[in-house]
Amino acid sequence: MKKSTIWILGIVMGLSFLSLLYLQVSYIEEMVKMRNEQFDESVKRSLYQVSKNLEYDETLRYLEKDVAETERVALSPQPVSPQVDVEGKEPQAHVSYPVSSSSSDFELKTTMMKPSGLPKAMISRKHGENNILQTSKALQEAIKNRYLHQRVLLDEVVLNILYKASDKALEDRVNFKNLDGYLKSEFVNNGIDIPYHFTVTDKDGREAYRCPDYEDKGSENSYTQILFPNDPPTKISFVKVHFPTRRDYIFDSISFMLPSLVFTLVLLITFIFTIYIAFRQKKLTEMKNDFINNMTHEFKTPISTISLAAQMLKDPAVGKSPQMFQHISGVINDETKRLRFQVEKVLQMSMFERQKATLKMTGVDANELISGVINTFTLKVEKYNGKIEANLKAEDPNIFVDEMHITNVIFNLMDNAVKYKKAEEDLLLTVTTWNEPGKLCISIADNGIGIKKENLKKVFDKFYRVHTGNLHDVKGFGLGLAYVKKIIQDHKGTIRIESELGVGSKFIIVLPLLNN
Questions:
Q1: CA distance 189 to 366
Q2: What secondary structure letter does DSSP report for 349?
Q3: What is the pTM of this model?
Q4: What does the alpha-carbon distance between residue 202 and residue 186 come to, in Å, rounded to a whole number?
C-alpha cells in the first residue's frame, strides 16, 4: 500500500472517529443540561407544593379553632321567653343558636308546629303532596343555609389569616418537623430521592431554623421558596434547600453513556496506534530494502575482486613472477578479510533478537585499548590525507568490559567518521578520554558533514542510515551504530551524539570504572 493511500485512509478514519467522539460528547453535554433543567423544575414544583401544604395547615388550624369555639357556644344553655300571638293561639317555640361571634345575625331556626286535629283519614291526597313539596323545599333551604354558613366561616378564617397570622412568630406558624416531612415526601413524589439540607430564614436573612444534619457542601446551588406567598413583604419568610450529592445524581443518571464514550476513545487510540505501526512497518521495509541493496553492493565488490585475482593466477606468466604472485595473493587475502568483516556485521543482527549479548568481561586499560585501535586505523585515515589526534587524559582508565566488543565499538565510530568525511576537506579525527566521578568518558569527534537535528534521534536505530536509496557513495548496512549502542548499554554505560550539519559530529561514551 502506498504511503499516500495510508495517509488518506488515516485522515478519513481519524476524522470519522473524531466526529463520532464530538457527537457523543455533545450528546452527553445536552443530556446533562436537560437533566439539570428537569431537576430544577422538580425541586421548584416540590417547594411550591410544600408552601401550599403549610398554608393548608395554617387554614386547618384556624378552622378547627373556630369550629371548637362555635360548638362551645352552641352547647351552652340559652333562656327562652314564651310569647302569645294576637289570636290567642298556642305559641310556637323558637330556638336560636348563634353560629359564631362574627355571624350573630345568622340563626338556624327550628319551629315546632302544632299537629293537625283532623283525623288522618280525612287528609286528602292533594294535601299530602303539598306537604312533601314543602318538606323538600325546607331541606333545600337548610342545605343552602349550611353552605352560606360554611362560606361565611371560611371567609372569616381567610380574613383572620391575612390580618393576624403574619403577626405571629415564624416558629408559631410553622411546624419544622412537618416541614421536613413535606419536603421529603414532595421530593420523592417528583423523583428526587437524594439527601438534602434546608434552612428557614426571614426577609433579612436571619436564620430561624436549620436542619439537624446541615452541611454546606453543595450550598452554592441552592433553591429558595417563599413559605407564605400572601404575607406582606415586611413579614415574608423563605425556605432554602440544597443537595450535597446533586452533581453525582445528575451524572449517575447519564452514566450509561460513559462506556460508549470510553469504547470510542479506545477505538480511536487503537486506530492511531495501527496507523503508527503501519507507517513504522513501511519505514522498516524501506530501510530493509536499502540494507539489502547496500549489502549486495558490499558483497559484490570483494567477490568480484577475488574472482578476478583467481583468474589472474591461472595465467602462467603470473606464476613466473614471484612479485606479481605475492601481490595477487595479498589482494585475495585482503578482500577475503574484508568479506569476512562484512559477514560478521550482518551476523551481528542475531544479537539484536536476544535481550543481552554474551560478554567476556575483564579489566582493561581504556587508554591502551584506544591507542591500539588508533595505531591500526591510522593507515586508513592517512589514505584520505587525514590524521588522528589522541588526547588520552583519563587518570583512571581501568574499566571492566568485553575487550573485543569495546574494540569493535571504537573501530566502528572511527570508521563512521571516515565514511561521512567532507570530500573537499582533509579528515581530522580527535579521540579524547577523561574522568568523571566513578566514570570514564570517551569522545570521538570529526570534522565531517554532520547530521541534521531531526535525524540525531534515529542514528542509533537498526538499519537506519542518513542517506537512503541506491546511492552507494557511503557503504554500510545501517547496523554499526545500533550495534555500538547495544554494546554500550550492555556494559551499563551510555552513548550520545552531538552534531551540527556541515561542522561535524562527536560521539561521547560514558562507562563505569573498574572499582565501581
A1: 86
A2: G
A3: 0.42
A4: 23
